[in-house]
Amino acid sequence: MGSPQHVSHVRASSSASTDVDGGGLNGAQDNLLPIANVGRIMKDVLPPQAKISKHAKETIQECATEFVGFVTGEASERCRQERRKTINGDDICHAMRNLGLDHYADAMRGYLRRYRESEEVAAALNNNSGREIQIDVRDELSIFRSNEQRQGRN
Amino acid sequence: MRQARPYSGMFCGGVSARTGPHALPLARIKKIMKRSAGEAAAGDGGARMISGEAPVVFSKACELFIAELTRRAWAATLEGKRRTVHREDVADAVRNTDLFDFLVDVVTNDND
């Protein structure tokens, strides 16, 4: 498949690499989010009888890629103004808010906080790897017990 | 049955959430970020560095974004009394959502 003719910058750097999946406008480009993952996420939110055309999948693939680029550009500009070299998670959240994506900003602030907490736990456990790791098993058991209660269906 | 991920991490001796399964590959996200960060920073000639947590945030954010865009496209599909989501449905979803103004070029530059 030859390189696309249109001007969307999302496809601008189409490489000459071979078209592995053999079809579709986006071929096997690595400057887009992978279409298999995109398709899986789409399938998960649609009812079982829904079908998705290949073009629709590709369009959403491009939209999601543009979403990353759009927010990153704003976050990068903020870093530049504040003379910081590294884009971090907070910059992403602020960028989303500046771009009017408030509910994304709010959702990601909570997600980022939980992620950082879990990173701290992982780091602490790794630091303890030379010694015995003390886990209060009673707490763990109660968690699984309440999990089983919550899961009505398996 | 899926175990809550933070707890399974504790039992495995501290597997970081960073390496945990994500809906979208972190390396690819980082690549796309670098391209955009480079463009925006062209003025001061410096490519931005990207912290490890940023692609993790985007992996989840993109998941939510794809879910939202898909649901809106599906609403257009249903309005057309169809069961297959077409590209036009995605375009309709973008045009009908102020939040997605930045995507207007992406959905209208597609050629047939």
UniProtKB/TrEMBL annotation, chain A:
Keywords from the UniProt entry: Transcription, Transcription regulation
Domain Transcription factor CBF/NF-Y/archaeal histone: 33-96
GO MF annotations in UniProt: DNA-binding transcription activator activity, RNA polymerase II-specific; protein heterodimerization activity; RNA polymerase II cis-regulatory region sequence-specific DNA binding
UniProt xrefs under Pfam families: CBFD_NFYB_HMF
Residue spans of biased composition, Low complexity class: 1-17
Start and end residues of each stretch annotated as Disordered: 1-25
Entry GO CC: CCAAT-binding factor complex
Similarity section: Belongs to the NFYB/HAP3 subunit family.
The protein, known as: Transcription factor CBF/NF-Y/archaeal histone domain-containing protein
Source organism (scientific name): Eleusine coracana subsp. coracana
Primary gene name: gb03840
From TrEMBL, chain B:
Highest taxon, organism lineage: Eukaryota
Domain Transcription factor CBF/NF-Y/archaeal histone: 24-94
GO molecular function: DNA-binding transcription factor activity, RNA polymerase II-specific; protein heterodimerization activity; RNA polymerase II cis-regulatory region sequence-specific DNA binding
Keywords, sorted A to Z: Nucleus
Entries under CDD domains matching the protein: HFD_NFYC-like
Subcellular location: Nucleus
Alphabetical list of InterPro entries matching this protein: CBFA_NFYB_domain (IPR003958), Histone-fold (IPR009072), Transcr_DNA_Rep_Reg (IPR050568)
Main localization of the protein described in the UniProt heading: nucleus
Pfam families xref list: CBFD_NFYB_HMF (PF00808)
Record's GO cellular component terms: nucleus
Protein name: Transcription factor CBF/NF-Y/archaeal histone domain-containing protein
Organism: Eleusine coracana subsp. coracana
Organism phylogeny: Eukaryota, Viridiplantae, Streptophyta, Embryophyta, Tracheophyta
